[in-house]
Amino acid sequence: MAGDPVFDLHVGGKMEISATVPLAGRDDLSMAYTPGVARVCSAIAEDPSLTQHYTWVPNTVAVVTDGTAVLGLGDIGPAAAMPVMEGKAVLFKAFGGVDGIPICLDTTDTEEIIETVVRMAPSFGGINLEDISAPRCFEIEDRLKERLDIPVFHDDQHGTAVVTLAALWNALKLTGREPASTRVVIQGAGAAGVAVAKILVEAGVEDLAVLDRKGVLNSVRGDLTPSKRALAEITADRTGRSGDLVDVLAGADVYIGVSGGTVPEEYVAMMAPDSIIFAMANPHPEVHPDVAHKYARVVATGRSDFPNQINNVLAFPGIFRGAFDARATAITEGMKLAAAQALAGLVGDDLTEALVIPAPFDPRVGPAVAAAVAEAARRDGVARA
After folding, report:
1. Same fold, 19-155 and 156-385
2. Which of 68, 111, 332, 356 has its CA 20 to 30 A from that of 11?
3. CA-CA distance, 248 to 38, in Å (whole number)?
């Protein structure tokens, strides 16, 4: 492994803890630690809200995983997940100025994960759930939201959804479509697929079919999990769509892939003119861009070596930055929609088929998303500042 630039980059890990105050002598030590620190501790004991001023808590997020759904690698366990969690923490800092602490839990038990996070919560201003497999991830997030008064955010769901919606808004604008009259197909009903579907419905998409390995989710099927049944009720049940991918992709305006499967070219050819294809499986898109461009006007992937990368780093650092700036107690649907609107708006007059979403290194992204999210938090009544 020595000499491999990727492994060389990871030697010793990708992050460290550094002090923000000097320790140059006895006076510094006496204030940073004992006896001076006791005065601060006593003040916080009397008024716990002072943690917001005298600790790192309000700017620190726990990046929590159980290692069951890591990237496209699947269930590789908590130890092997650490490089990804470190990477996430580095991105939080670089793009949002947020301190992230990677935490890999050696349990896949839903109750144990929830109880562990709840007990750790006083050390953090927010919880970013990461790479936890569906359907457990839905229950874990929902129950943590009920029990904690700090933002809880499952990035595999909502980060993907926010960036997808932003790119889709611009793609629809470019192709002269409106959400309410656009036919959308989502292949994949895991964490990302469920969240993307929900945010598209919030944004006004009315004709939406979501598929898992057995076909379109609709209530006629007797094999749906509770999360899939709830999704069927707000998607295909409204339109009566059923069948397999070939049945719903014919004439569809938009294909969104979050499945890791492969779509035959003949299916792609059946889509509507000026279609939109977001093939987001990584590293192998469901529809290779070379194939997609034969039939679609706008093409996006999850890869950095093609235009229009649907990358969660466009969302989660700014979302937490904005939530922290507003001292939000939660991340609402309105805050997610505001983040998507901010991202879409940054493209502006530069909108083309090859640019429907800003690049990850666009310096405007983090501040724009943070400002929009903070404003939405105040509007939604969850801000404490």
Report:
1. yes
2. 68
3. 65
Q: Which long-range contacts does 270-276 make (Cβ < 8 Å, 24+ apart)?
A: 270/246, 271/295, 271/296, 272/183, 274/175, 274/176, 276/168, 276/171, 276/172, 276/175
336 is catalytic: no
Cα–Cα distances in angstroms (integers) from residue 151 to residues 47, 91, 142, in the given order: 21, 18, 12
14, 54, 88, 198: which is the annotated catalytic residue?
A: 88
Would you say the C-alpha torsion 266, 212, 204, 158 has a positive or negative sign? Answer: negative
Q: Is-contact 383 326, C-beta < 8 A? A: yes
Angle, vertex CA 17, rays to CA 14 and CA 19, nearest 5: 145
pLDDT at 15: 83
Q: Which fold has domain 156-385?
A: Rossmann fold (3.40.50)
Measured distance between the N- and C-terminal CA atoms of the chain, rounded to whole angstroms: 49
CA distance 221 to 240: 12
* Pairwise CA distance, residues 155 & 161, whole Å: 9
**pLDDT recorded at residue 278:** 97
Return the domain boundaries, the chain.
19-155, 156-385
pLDDT value at position 4?
86
Q: Which of 14, 33, 294, 295 is catalytic?
A: 33
33 is a catalytic site residue: yes
Tokens of 111: 């109750």
From the CB of residue 278, how many other CB atoms can be counted at a distance below 10 Å? 31
C-beta of residue 319 within 8 angstroms of C-beta of residue 264: no
Collect all residues with Cβ–Cβ distance below 8 Å to 119 and sequence separation of at least 6: none
Q: 10-residue block means of pLDDT along the chain (385 residues)?
A: 83 87 91 92 95 95 96 89 95 96 97 98 96 92 96 94 97 96 94 93 94 91 87 91 93 93 93 96 90 96 91 96 97 96 96 95 96 98 93
Residue type at 206?
A: E
- Cα 130 to Cα 62, 86, 94, 112, 312, distances in angstroms: 10, 11, 18, 16, 12
User: Which CATH number does 19-155 carry?
Assistant: 3.40.50.10380
Q: What is the CB neighbour count within 10 angstroms for residue 151?
A: 28
Phi, psi of 247 (to 5 degrees): -70, -35
